[in-house]
Amino acid sequence: MADNERKVTSISELGEFGLIDRLTNKIKIRNASTLKGIGDDAAIIDAKEKKVVITTDLLTEGIHFNLMYVPLKHLGYKSVVVNLSDVAAMNAVPTQITVSIAVSSKFSVEALEQIYEGMNLACEKYGVDLVGGDTTSSMTGLVISVTAIGMAREEELVYRNGAQKNDLICVTGDLGGAYMGLNLLERENRVFKDNPNVQPQLEGYNYILERQLKPEARTDMKKIFEELKVKPTAMMDISDGLSSEVMHICSDSGVGAKIYEEKVPMDNETKDLAEEMHINPIVAALNGGEDYELLFTVPIADHDKIRNHPDITVIGHIVDASEGTNLVAMGGTEIELTAQGWNSLKDEK
Ligand code: ADP
Ligand code: MG
Questions:
Q1: How much is the CA Rg of the chain, to the nearest whole Å?
Q2: Model confidence over 158-177: pLDDT tens digits?
Q3: Whose atoms come closest to the Cα of 15: which ligand?
Q4: Atom of ligand 1 nearest to the CA of 116
Q5: pTM score, two decimals?
Q6: How far apart are CA 119 and CA 136, in angstroms?
Q7: Backbone phi and psi for residue 16, each to the nearest 5 degrees, phi listed first
Q8: Which of 17, 21, 38, 107 has the most ligand 1 atoms within 8 A of CB, as the residue to mutate?
Q9: Which residue, by CA, sits nearest to atom 10 of ligand 1?
């Protein structure tokens, strides 16, 4: 962070309006549904015949991110993506975001510009408009709140409560990578704190570092479901870990689940680092979180439609609520799932 901060402008030099202008003057509007973006008392959105989906995430320094090893641009990007992931989990298309920040005077204007650069990059990649926000000061750390707005036809929306007995349980992509990426960053940060002259050992782990620092939202799945002619019966994004998300779908749908350890997709880097750090990789997938893949259920009759899709893996099936929510381990033993997902309100994670 420090090495590329050549010019340092204090926030007080610009004042609130100057700062907002500096941060938002490059923003482009891409969606016809954005009638008014930044610049008035409120933005105006035209949803026409669509239903509007709204979701917010609040990120606080020291709880959700550590500025020791998270580059500001990545932080901006990720703070947008985590919200778009929630919109994707409703099977809606993200269209607008608002961004609110509380910032202490230790931040320079240039540092905030880096955050916005990351946010703009995410907006560009996902075709989303940044239409407003708020800026205020913070006595302590940095706080970023992003609200995302999305749209879908009513019949396209997918909730958490529609899973039925015998449905197949599926995930997109692979799991556990973001958690192992975090473990790597934390390990190297500890080494650096002990001896600042030691260079971090991050080679060979590009994929999991990217999973942690620059996650992507599965906004592509809506179109894939359309092409496959599949509508999930229930869906949510995997932000807290597979285990707690499966339990959410099951409790909301009034069903149970069996998922199979051998079927849970994991990348080789995830498995390699887990082995190196003496962590069972399935634990990274079950409890790690922040992978931002989608967990969904489909009727068993749709198996042929999804079975060969490279982005989709069937990891189990829905059972009667009386059978509980269980992981079938490699040897065949059933282990009850627990919601040890990443939870910032708990003391430990
Ligand atoms: P108000 O006094 O009505 O809160 P502001 O002066 O805070 O208005 O904001 C002026 C305009 O700039 C509004 O359109 C607002 O949505 C936008 N805005 C303010 N802060 C941010 C921010 N951090 N990011 C993006 N847009 C912002
Ligand atoms: Mg304001």
A1: 21
A2: 999 999 999 999 999 999 99
A3: 1
A4: 24
A5: 0.94
A6: 18
A7: -60, -45
A8: 38
A9: 39
